[in-house]
Design goal:
It is built from three helices and eight strands; from the N terminus they run E-E-H-E-E-E-E-E-E-H-H. The chain is of the alpha+beta class and 171 residues long. It folds into two domains: 118 residues, no CATH class; 36 residues, no CATH class. Strands 2, 3, 4, 5, 6 and 7 form a six-stranded mixed β-sheet that branches. The chain has a two-stranded antiparallel sheet with strand order 1-8. A hairpin with a 4-residue loop joins strand 4 and strand 5. The longest helix has 13 residues. The protein is elongated and about 70 Å long. It starts with a strand and ends with a helix. The structure holds zinc ion (ZN) (2 copies). The site of one zinc ion (ZN) has 7 residues, from loops.
Length: 171
């Protein structure tokens, strides 16, 4: 699925600026993160400026990210905005390759690949409902974010726990 910014009309004059808005979905973009679900509509908006040398595209992707917290195993949905910015330079026969610019040949810029890359590269390796998520009690499994379960967890030394697991496996 393409997201085309047309370069004729409003964007034709040097210095011209045009806003863009697109609605899409993770499926349509083929942008499914491995450890989250982006349910519903994905909103893409921003501006494109004709700088003469390039078309400068800046904007943000807004998603609702649903994930399972690695610590407390709860399911959470968080609205998130991922910014993006890229210079698009029209390709002419024999132009040298340049780092940091996207080449295009048509009368419109398709920003779908940029949006897809933006979504996939900002995904965190770890899912946490919040930075200080307290996780689950290793004894009773209670969600410690909801209050203390009363178990004595001080006695569980991680090294002893590892040893205990080894001994269990020997049985
Ligand atoms: Zn959590
Ligand atoms: Zn407990």
């Amino acid at each position: 699925m393409g997201m085309l910014i047309k370069l004729s009309g409003a964007l034709a004059p040097l210095g011209a600026q045009a806003e863009f808005h697109f609605q899409t979905t993770a499926d349509a973009l083929d942008a499914a993160p491995e450890n989250a679900v982006l349910a519903g509509e994905i909103a893409v908006s921003g501006t494109c400026v004709n700088t003469g040398r390039s078309y400068r595209v800046e904007g943000a992707v807004r998603v609702l990210r649903s994930f399972v917290c690695d610590r407390c195993l709860g399911t959470f949905s968080q609205p998130q905005a991922y910014p993006f910015g890229e210079d698009f330079v029209r390709y002419r026969e024999g132009d040298p390759q340049e780092d940091g610019v996207e080449r295009f040949t048509d009368e419109a810029i398709d920003i779908a690949p940029l949006v897809r890359d933006t979504i996939l590269t900002v995904q965190p390796l770890r899912n946490l409902c919040r930075d200080d998520c307290r996780g689950l009690c290793p004894r009773c499994g209670a969600d410690l974010n909801r209050g203390d379960c009363g178990c004595d967890r001080r006695s569980i030394d991680p090294r002893l726990a590892a040893l205990a697991n080894l001994l269990k496996q020997d049985d």
